[in-house]
Amino acid sequence: MPYDPGLVWTQPGGLMSVISRGFFGRRPQVDDPSRLPPGQYLTAGFPVLSAGPTPRTRLDEWTFQIRGLADPSRSWSWEEFTALPTETVTVDIHCVTKWSKFDTVWTGVSLDSLLDGVATGEARFITAFCDGGYTTNLPLEEVTGGQAWVAYQYDGEPLDPQHGGPARFLVPHLYFWKSAKWVRGLELHIEDKAGFWETYGYHNHGDPWREQRYSGD
Amino acid sequence: MAGTAILGRLNWLAAKVTEVRSETERVRSIVFECPGWDGHMAGQHVDVRLTAEDGYQAQRSYSIGSAPEDDHLVLTVERLQDGEVSPYLVDVLQADDQLEMRGPIGRYFVWEESMGGPLLMIAGGSGIVPFRAMLRHRVAAHSAVPTRLLYSARSFDEVIYREELAGLAAYDEIDIRFTLTRAQPIGWKGYSRRIDREMLAEVSWPPEERPLVYICGPTSFVETAAGSLVDLGHDPTLIRTERFGPTS
Questions:
Q1: Distance from CA of A36 to the nearest CA of B (A)
Q2: Closest-CA distance of chain A to residue B122, Å
């Protein structure tokens, strides 16, 4: 028997949604609504989402590596890494769990400068690898050209472990799980390899403007 | 119904409320009929989308409180102060109302009978919801996996699924313990403090038994529980966490 969808709202594209009786919503208090991707809401807090315990890596044991199809491969100690030229960027971030946060301020090293002088050959993809065993995959062309950083300060302060400290990936144009916490390096590949959340049902690419939340979106 | 099934895509489905149940003053369970729902694993969540008459929409994620074997999908929702969606779900929604759902979502914070155990669940507040799904799944699947739940709530009145948990605790090999952090009834025999390492050492199996650990609750609760278990020697890769709530 066909299911009666009741009242529907027809979107400009022709898709229909059922209307929820008595729902008015608290419209986003956003000066510029075009900054908020579809299905997101603005938050002032900074929610934490992680699949497991927060790793605690000593800074004297921390390194950041570039390996795989990198020629030469690279490795920096914490001291060396934090002596690299930094950039401070102000960006909007968007979590797949629906919150967005505007004007977050991060300081770190751009991927462009980390990859400077590294021949990447046939590599088209990277896997960021992290303490705790997490990985995430991204196309190389989406982390170069001023699009990605390894950030170790948030709002001018050392990055809190809960938020990925000592250092996390920052790729603000994709959903925030791609900005892997506790990052320890990246591996260059010819083929794309699904990372942690990408294996557990989340989208391989994760563009918030195309609402690529889950596999198949 | 909206949309056509595209292979592999999670489509929005119209869901109808069949029943609402008050769990505590701030928490309500909502029972849904959701034609086209393709099943889920215990521990997964669902995206809920509300549409206002003028087309404005809001989406949020909620843990599923029902087992895969249950006839209906159940969400248990806590009213958040200043929330946009949760006050509607807790205070306004009633039987025969409709909303849209998309899921199930997440394949990591799940427990299936085939994964074995021992199974250790640690819940803070409304973090109990996915564990109701796991416990009900365990019972429905006739699993004999040794199971323990440590549930932290502020007071007895704020314990969600109180009667159901009492019934589940009567099963062999299901051990449920409570800690009430703010107020305790007279004669209370459970714990009366925030979770700490000592409590976790008492409740959990020794690390050598390699229990599968699931922790769900507010961020600070999860940080304490997960950090303490790692300190006690548990393998971090066996500890799955789900956190909610903002941090400053």
A1: 12
A2: 13
Give the whole-angstrom CA distance, residue A141 versus residue A99: 26
Does the structure's ipTM exceed the value 0.90? no
Would you give the DSSP letter of residue A10? E
CATH topology of domain B113-244: Rossmann fold (3.40.50)
Sketch the domain layout of chain A as residue ranges.
35-50+59-210
Give the residue among B88, B84, B73 at the shortest CA–CA distance from B129. B73
CA atoms within 13 A on the CB side of B63: 26
| HSE value, Cβ hemisphere, 13 Å, CA-based, for B149 | 27
For residues B212 and B43, what is the distance between their CA atoms, to the nearest angstrom?
Answer: 13
Over residues A65-81, the mean pLDDT reads 97
Give the tens place of pLDDT for each residue, A8-61.
666 666 667 899 999 998 876 777 888 999 999 988 887 778 889 999 889 999
**Fold adopted by B13-105:** Elongation Factor Tu (Ef-tu); domain 3 (2.40.30)
* CA–CA min distance A190, chain B (Å): 26
Q: Is A5 in contact with B7 (Cβ distance < 8 A)?
A: no
Residue B2: is its pLDDT beyond 50?
no
- Would the CB atoms of A3 and B92 count as touching at under 8 Å? no
**CA–CA dist B37, B29 (Å, integer):** 19
For residue B162 the two structure tokens come to 């109180």
Say how far apart CA B155 and CA B184 lie, in whole Å: 6
Residue B91, classed as helix, strand or coil, is helix
DSSP code at position A134:
-
C-alpha to C-alpha distance for B108 and B110, rounded to whole angstroms? 5
CATH code: domain A35-50+59-210 is 3.90.420.10
Q: Does B88 sit within 8 Å of A6, measured CB to CB?
A: no
From the list B7, B99, B241, which residue is nearest A53 (CB)?
B241
Q: How close B21 comes to chain A (CA, Å)?
A: 19
| Pairwise CA distance, residues A165 & A54, whole Å | 9
Q: Which residue, among B7, B40, B53, would best test binding to A if mutated, counting the most A CBs under 10 Å from its CB?
A: B53
Cβ-Cβ contacts under 8 Å, B18 against chain A: none
Nearest of B78, B79, B26, B68 to residue B43 by alpha carbon: B68
Q: Among all residues of chain B, which has the CA nearest to that of A98?
A: B60
Instruction: Give the pairing type, strands A157-158 and A149-154.
Output: antiparallel
Whole-angstrom Cα distance, residue A208 to residue B154? 37
Asked if the Cβ–Cβ distance from A53 to B58 is below 8 Å, we say no
